[in-house]
């Protein structure tokens, strides 16, 4: 690993995001918080399990030179309001309405982690609305090692013990690493994310993925097919369920480009935003502006 590269992340990446708006919009009765920056064709970023409006924060300025970048927070996350019943179908419908409310018919859609699972279902149901799909370290649905936090009466306790406590988090991170050594943002983002995300919200999102997987996993493996131009971004040391997705992704998308960022582990958007920008942005910049 070239650790010197980690210390030379471009200034526009590591600075606190500037020239952005923090906004809120009512979508089907739910208050959705989002951040907006830049100008040009619309780009919508879906965060993952412990994300919020700032998950794409270290990358947005580079993409905002070419796109109008929208970074919404799912219900229960960030400054967004709660959703009474959370399912992947609900999130897809919310995402569709969000785009329509902003006045757009077609967008480039980025999905990180579990947000990528939602983006895939969005693309399956509404392919006419997707200009390009960028998926980042997506799970083959629910990770087996998180099944215990779905057990009623035990889930909240385990979440707090394993993921919210300092000792539990560092123990888990010792064999499921979530950061790059040498000065990345990954550890801080992940550790703070588990503490910031409400327990009920985190469990509801994971339960939604679990229920969706029971209905759709076999269908996806047998029948999912998309012609949408798609980029899949993989890190350098992913978890088992992410590796399992990597093995099937080429069968899902007919127009697929794989981008590897082995210098990161699981979350290149936060761990190595410099390399995410360097390797992904040239592939998605609208042709007239290249």
Please sum up the structure shown.
With 290 residues, this protein is of the alpha/beta class.
Word description of this protein:
By secondary structure, the chain is an alpha/beta fold. The longest helix is centred in the C-terminal third of the chain and has 25 residues, at 199-223. It has an eight-stranded mixed sheet, with helices on both faces. Strand 7, helix 10 and strand 8 (256-260) form a beta-alpha-beta unit. It has helices at 3-6, 11-14, 60-63, 88-101, 114-125, 155-164, 166-175, 186-196, 199-223, 240-252, 268-271, 273-284, and strands at residues 20-27, 30-38, 42-46, 68-72, 107-112, 130-136, 230-234, 256-260. It has one domain: Alpha/Beta hydrolase fold, catalytic domain (Rossmann fold, 3-Layer(aba) Sandwich).
What's the CATH superfamily, by name?
Alpha/Beta hydrolase fold, catalytic domain
Distance between the termini: 30 Å
Give the helix/strand class: alpha/beta
Q: Please provide the ordered H/E string of secondary-structure elements.
A: HHEEEHEHEHEHHHHEHEHH
Gyration radius (Cα, Å) is: 18 Å
Estimated share of beta-strand residues = 15-25%
The structural domain count equals 1
